[in-house]
Design brief:
It is built from five helices and two strands; from the N terminus they run ββααααα. It is mainly alpha-helical. Strands 1-2 form a two-stranded antiparallel sheet.
Length: 87
């Protein structure tokens, strides 16, 4: 895969995606929220949360920002966690 002129080794993308999905579940769980509670905060059905946490649905950056806000974490801190640097 080539993104912005950088070649990503095969397999790395799927590991990174799995890390993203795990982090999405973790921030919800750390906030003490069930999928249903998170969905209510987002004004969405529970299946919305289930689908993005399982990788069935992708979030755009605005949706990710809303998810972070609902979990009580900033988008910047989320990115730092995703990159393995911590908040």
């Amino acid at each position: 895969m080539v993104a912005y002129g950088v070649r990503v080794p095969k397999g790395k993308s799927s590991r990174e995606r799995q890390g993203l999905l795990e982090l999405l579940r973790r921030i919800r769980s750390d906030a003490g929220l069930t999928q249903a509670q998170m969905a209510k905060k987002l004004g969405q059905p529970q299946s919305y949360v289930s689908k993005y946490e399982s990788g069935e649905r992708r979030l755009d950056v605005l949706e990710l920002s809303q998810v972070c806000r609902a979990a009580g974490i900033s988008l910047a801190d989320f990115v730092h966690l995703l990159e393995g640097q911590g908040p």
